[in-house]
Amino acid sequence: MERSRSGELDVEIPFVFCNWDNHEEDNPRREQRALFFQMVEDYGIPLLTLSWKNFLPELRQRDEGSWRLEYGREMRRLIGDRGFDVGMLAGYMLWIDDETCHTYRLLNLHPALPEGPKGTWQEVIWRLIEQRADEQGAMVHVCTEEWDRGPAVSYCRFPLRGGEYDRLWESMEEKLSQRSLEEVKSEEGVDEPLFRRIREDGARRELPLIVHTLRYLAEGSVDLDELPAPMDLSAAIDAEIGEEAD
After folding, report:
1. Taking the model in full, what pTM does it have?
2. Cα–Cα distance list, 99 to 16, 29, 96, 108, 204 (Å)
3. Spans in the chain with pLDDT lower than 70
4. Residue 243 belongs to domain spanning
5. In terms of domains, do 5 and 41 share one?
6. Does residue 59 contact residue 66 with C-beta atoms inside 8 Å?
7. How far is residue 180's CA from residue 126's CA, in Å, rounded to a whole number?
């Protein structure tokens, strides 16, 4: 919105859809979501919600595949008359049903490189640590029937070696000489220093990646129907967040 209002980004946001309504009983991020909802309202953007927890819970328990189809059908009913060119999924943790993927052009932010692990950001980072990976990144890809896969539109990468990372890896290797990775994960979780650093470096690149990608789409530089190799936006994003690109 800031880039749009300044004229740097030629986009409009006709609505925001959230799969929570913030009235759920079990809702560990209620306060953060309330702030987000308030921000949407302050910008004057229509907010549409459909609580995944409260939508046909018996069917979800019994048949998750059928539930996903029904949820997608109701979501399409809610957003159907809200014309938009591209939908951007960010922090959206549900698997989009096939019909919705076919009906709309949807892009998904995934916290890994195009060839990287699938799963939540937590699963991705633990997998990278298990693999002793040398780099991490984030990508924007076309939403398809296959979870966390689809043609990549853009990505950025950053190294997991050198500087403070070397010390953090040494500390992790020392832990792994005495405990299994599963034990480290169970005992320290997201507060483990190497894990936390990887998450921080990835998270601060995600919004710039979205903005740069949307700019290229708005300018007509990218055709989602005929995608070439994905754009490597690492240098631009490193410059934006104040780091010198390798």
Report:
1. 0.86
2. 20, 29, 8, 16, 32
3. 147-148, 243-246
4. 86-246
5. yes
6. yes
7. 12
